[in-house]
Amino acid sequence: MTNTDLLKLPNSAPRPAGELEALERIWSTPTGFRRLTAINNNIIGVYYIATALAFFVFAGVLAAIMRAQLAVPDNTLVSPDVYNQLMTMHGTVMMFLFAVPAVEAAGVLLLPQMLGARDLPFPRLSAYAFWAYAIGGTIFCSSLLFGLSPAGGWFMYPPLTSSSFSSGIGADFWLLGIGFIEISAIAGAIEIIVGVLRTRAPGMTIGKMPVFAWTMLIFAGMVIFAFPAIILATLLLELERAFGWPFFISDRGGDPLLWQHLFWFFGHPEVYVIFLPAAGMVSMILPSMTQSPLVAYNIIVVALIATGFFSFGLWVHHMFTTGLPNLSLGFFSAASMAVSLPSGVQVFAWIATIANGKLRFHTPALFVLGFLFIFTLGGLTGVMVAMVPFDWQAHDTYFVVAHLHYVLIGGMVFPLFAAIYYWTPAFSRKALDERLGKIAFWLMFIGFNLAFFIMHLTGLWGMPRRVYTYKSEMGWGLPNLVSTIGAYIFAAGVAIVLFDLIRKFRIGYPRGNVWSAGTLEWLPNGNYSARSVPIIRHHNPLWSDPALSRHVEEGRYYLPGTATGYRETIVTSPVEAVPQYVMIMPQPSWAPMIAAAGTAAFFILLTFKLVGLALFAGAIAVIAMIRWGWDLEPKPPFAEVDIGGGLRLPTYMSGPRSHSWWAVSILLLAAAALYLSYVFSYLYLWTVAPGVWPSAADVSYGSFAALCAALFIVASVGMLLASHTLRIAHRSRQWIFPVLVIGSLAALSVGLVLEVYGHWSAGLRPTINSFAALTYTASLLQGMLVAPALVIGVYSLARYARGDLDSNRRAAFDVTHLLFQAAVVEGLFNQLLVYGFPHVVR
Amino acid sequence: MALGLRLDWRVAALLGFAVFGNATEAWCNQSALHPASDAAERIFNLIVVMTAGAVAIQLLVIGLVIAGVYGNWRWRHRIASVRFVFAMGVIFPTVILTALLVYGLLLMRDGHSGALPGHDAAPMDTT
Prior knowledge:
By secondary structure, chain A is mostly helical. Chain A is 65% helix and 3% strand.
């Protein structure tokens, strides 16, 4: 470090008295009962991971019961129905309540520190996503205690899960509960995308971003595009079960295979959604363990992006035995093999990194090596099942059970446990015990392979999946006993890790950089993350500048205190990470938790068909959300602040550069994905049952189409005018803006009501056939955009009345406007699809 | 059917019997390792080829990890390069997987004639 380098530091030391204290005060965590109002990522992130681990243990216990049942032939430990519930809950909880939330939680916990941000951009949204998941997930799991759990397998195929064959509320629990938890996942994904792209430390260009941030970015992008498919699928199946709208009933123009397409269009990317962040963790841990930079960073990033794209083209490989034409099978077989390439590249890049340095055999390194062994084998059996003829033999046997556990436990659980050992000292006062960690690793590694390797053979010997028992003359007794013993050894390893976590993990001033790692999360940090935000010039800034930690802690870099007196973080440009503005962040609040409880209650009460109570809970949720938004965007005390080195940044931003604009745009991408899934379903069912589509001559239900379209266009123009009025801000004509907004909201709503009335008055009923059901679904989906646009529209008007909305501070209106125009576009598309399509095809 | 592959099957079956002595004739009924039709026979060959390939690649990966950790300077230098990552991660799997895909597509063209009469799957009580 030369003197000229020192001169480059933006701030001088020592810092003014009281600066650090003010920073600590504004970022302090509420104590006592009010701790539940905490929204800071180091608190919510830890709760989030702890909850995910609790669900992991719960689902693991279910697996242990199943393994006990299967240990010997002709066992009667659990009844067939209980077994089906155990099996369904095990898969569902592991996938939806453990794997996806666990990696999302890791993102919430690690990303701000890793990127040099004070927190993620929407801390209250993180808190909401966490509480919604924790409350909803707990109620979902408790259904097992009452014997009310779903029993149709984790992928819930109709017709088994239709009301004719699963009449209890178990399936509704699944559909509403999982649909709701997916919404929480999307909320988290929006947060992560904006966080990764807009809150990186100055100078951390996208090409210098840690690989974990890359994987979380791709993870979140995949969630945005894949999860809407399952949300639509659960919506359709629930509509069919509750109201008899026939989407999957073939007698009335539906098709059960539609479910499989929608489910796997979500379900396959989901595997990579789980795996990619875990791979990102490995790419962070290995450089520390070997004390050498990651080899082939660029190739790894390209591989990650490629995986994200490929993973959307593979879903049919779950359907090789559904009688599809050979041409499709060949295509999806090839695509399935292609996706193994980017994973293979990463495996060899990790091996290269190991060879590049000197591997230190700490516990995280052991878990990473275990991961390499298990995941490679899982990838190889994945290539085997991607071969269509092999899949004809192995489909629905224990071979597939073995494969998927190799990929998921190998690809996600082992890296997660490596991550737990690796990052605990970055957040906890004490590190975890190395000796216990090594014992735990060997128990888990040996137990896992004992339990699951033999299952490949059990499967090839013909044992089908999802059976509650088997006859002794089948000869599967011994391999199953081995699997059971292995599973219990694995569980013992997990128990040791949990024991050590409970004993050692304490939130507080972290233990620090015990591994001599090179990335920003290892800077000395408190609730506010790092004291000051460094300028980044290298992939491993702590290695390239040994004085960095000291300078950061002394407050020599940007934003060493609080510039506005609020919580705040620096927002930078998405590619080059040039500082753009200082974002004022919210304080702790009860609102996110109450909103989450209300949302969870809404969905759970709907399961029990208590519509009145459900609406009441929903209203509480909406009120809490309005309360939550109300004190965002406080009027900043200064229009611009100096964050150090003479760099002056605005404290407010609206329009396409603002974080709120980004978040809503990403939400609209998810809405577009939902709508595309709907269009796919529409066209798919038309190809299956064109007979139930009306001929052009009797499109009498279209009498209102032109009127609706006209109303939508009028509403759109009205809103554009309102936006313009706000910009020019006539002080004398303040009434024009609210009148335009109210008029536009009214026109949009009336258009939607007329659309539905038009169908109804023409005699169309959603229960008669799939065409009618899809027609009403179109309006329902549009309603899902119109309703929030109405709520936020009224909210914006309230802010306007209070004087909190003007030509500068206009984010609330911009958000409404984006949602509004999306609702208009969807409405116009609906007219084309529902009224125009029959004209085209007949 | 090539004699070599038949022998492979016998070795595998013998191994199975040796390890799992309790296995009886019955499990062969629906075992993919006991092909009873021409189509199943062809798929069985595929299973043997792929298993051998998977074992070889798994051993290769383990070997490379060991070489990366304990190997001498020359070995580690060779492995720790972008060229190695590209060769092993892109070129090698592309060649292998293309060959495998062609094999699979040819098998698919040959068709899937299903189980022979009298070799139906054993009845299972799955509720």
